[in-house]
Structure formats: C-alpha cells, structure tokens
Amino acid sequence: MTVAENFFENLRLELRRGCLTLAVLAQLRQEHYGYTLRKALAERGMEIDESTLYPLLRRLETQGLLASEWREEAKRNKRFYRLSDDGEEIFAKLLHEWNAINTSIHNIL
Amino acid sequence: MNLLDRYLEAVKKFLPWDRQDDILAELRANLESQLEDKEAELGRPLRADEVEAWLKQIGPPTQMAARYQPQRYLIGPETFPIYWLVMRLAFLWAIPVYAIVNAVQIATETPNWTAVLQAGLRLPYVLLMAAAWITLVFAALEFMVTRYPAKFQAVTGGYDGWSSNALPDLSLTPSKKKRTYAHAVAEVIFGIIFLIWLLLVPQHPYVLWGPGAVYLRSSPFQLAPVWFQFYWCVVVLNIFQLGWRCVDLLRGTWRLQRPVQQIVMKAVGLIPLAALLSGQVWVMLKQPALDQAKYGQTADAINTSVRLSLTLVLVIVTMQLVWEAVGIGLNAYRRRMAATR
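Output (structure tokens, whole complex):
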C-alpha cells in the first residue's frame, strides 16, 4: 500500500467509524443478535467485519445505548440486542446531526 | 478440537479476564451461526482449508480480542497539550538548574575535567527521570479523569475558563523595528566614550572605584595579574565592537540587527570572562610575609567567592548564548522550510 493509499484508507476508516455506530443503532430498533445484525446490515449495503461489529455492540451496551439479554434460539444460547430508551433518544439526535451534515455536504458540493 | 474451538481459545487469552466467558459465549454463538449458514449454502460441511480461510478473513485472535478492550492510552488527546507544555518547561528549567548546581559543586570542590564529564554524562539520566515522573503524574491524572469524570470536572472543563483578555500583549513580543541612524550613531559615540573611560582606568583608578580607590591603595590586598589580562581583553573587545559598528555605519548596514552578528559579539565577550576564570588567584596580599597570618584567610575566602561567582556568570552567559544560537538556528530552519513549501 502506498503512502497515499494508506492516507486514504485512514480517512475512509475515520469517516466510516461514526456512520457504523449510527447504522447499528438504526438497525437495532428491531431486536437482533450479533450474526443476524451483521447479515441485516450487509443486506442494506453496510458490510461490517466481525471483529468490528461484535465489540462495538458490547461498547454501546456498556454506554447504555443498547439493552441485551441471553435467550435460546435454534437450540443455541444467543445474546439479543435492541435499542434502550437512552439509545433511542441519542439515536434520534445523532440521526438529526447526520442529516444536517449530509445536507451541508450536499450544499457545499 | 476443531479450528473454531482453537480460534476461540486463542481469542480468550487476550480478552478482559472479568468478561471473557461471556464474550466468548456470544462470539461462539455468532460464529457458529455464521458457519451453519455457510454450510447450509454449500449443502455440506466446510472443509478444513475452507474453515481456515474463513477464520483468516475474520482476523487474527489478538486483533479480535483487542477490539473488546477499552481504548487505552497513557495520556489522552485533551491532556496531551498540557503534558507536552509541562515537559518542555521542565526540560527548559532542569538543564540550567542542573548546570548551575553542578558548576557550583565542582567550583567549591577541586575543579577538574573528570567531574565536568561525569556531570555531563549524568544529565540524560536526570532528564529521563524528570520525563518519567511527569509522565507518571499525567498518566495518573488521565486515569482519574477517565474513571471519575464528574469529580474531575475542574480538570476536564479547564478550557472553558480561558479568557481572550488573558492572551499575551503583542507589545511584549520582541520588536522587529529597524534601528534608526541616530541610534547607530549614538552607539558609536557612547562606544568611544566608554573606551576612553576604560583606557583611563589604569592611570586614574578613581574613575572606576571612586572613593574606594583610596581604600584599595591603603588596604593589604591587591588585584592579581589575571585582572590585567582581563582588562586588556575587555579593551580589545571594545575596540573590536566599536570597529564593527563603525564599519556598519560607513556601509549603511546599521538598520538591521543581524542576529548572527549579535551572537558572534556575545561569544567573543566570553573570552575575557574565560581568561579571568583561568586564574587561580584574584586577590593577593601586598606583603605576604607580613600580612599572611592576619589577612591570609580573608584573601582565601575572597578568592573562593570570586571563583564561585565567575563560574556562575560564565555558566549563565554560556547558556544564554546557546539558547539564543539555538533560537536563531530554529528560526532559520523554519524560514527555509516555509520557503520550500
């Protein structure tokens, strides 16, 4: 990877990082466990690595944005996540912010 | 034990110990579901090489586990500017303080080059210790601020209290005004007056000592010959400076205060001081045979004090010179870098 490519990759990751959180919060308005969440996001064009998504879920839960519970499904214990009340509130604010940024960028372009 | 079990076992080693079972159970459930989906798509179990490729795509166990760890840094981006400022200030003060303390210590003991060399070699250790302690204090502060943000509101909210009125006054920064012709002429005139005054001192000591000249004449002490060397060094230096200023005036180059010229002047100014310090005795008895018993100790005490004072002055002036030279060098480097951009 050249210096320019590396620079672009860093910027791309930086840009994606916040968007991933927003996408995860949006998708978790419906309950999911890790793998189905990843599949649902991928189906909507948002591919996320396992090593990024699963720790992110833990982090968002620790921050109080997600609620989770262990439940058995298809003979396997799985941890299901959904937006918490605080998460819904913050998601609404983040969505508003994202829309504002999006509009600004379009206006600038 | 299959590859997935081995992978999870490897991840476990790097997970936070208090949550590793919980995280591992969730990770296993997610990865097994994914594996089942893949097998359902193919209609057969994955071969070992396919499992290997799949796990390789997921990423190394260390990377997977690392993402579960909280983001860790010794000193965070908010604290770092203050940390860096403190570090620079500490280095700025540690070096001169260390130099002065060691110069005094060496001067009071038996001065020798081995002691100077040893003091120089100890400097990196002193700086390293200073840096280590500052880093330790800031790391502890960062930890406390991160762990108890509410209790350390004053630290984290420190930037809210700044006021634009507290910004330094521009008039306090060094002036870049060019010198006037009157200023340059005045320097030459006063330089000539000072040189005349200096040349009068040997024949008419009272122009330097005032009424004290009478006391010196009658006192049992006299100045050592090294002071005459010092005197002539100062005279030659003043003639040199005066000559330089006259040349500047004649060439019309008095407007700009050239930093390199100032540094050279100051460096040359160290020569008389170094010449003076090279002497072992600065004050001696006029009649040692008669006065040694009565004034010998006083003369020794005066010589020790003079040596100490001269060493201090030499160290401070040298450090000032180095500081200014480094500043000029850095400014020149900045200008060159800005020109190449």
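The radius of gyration of chain B is 36 Å.
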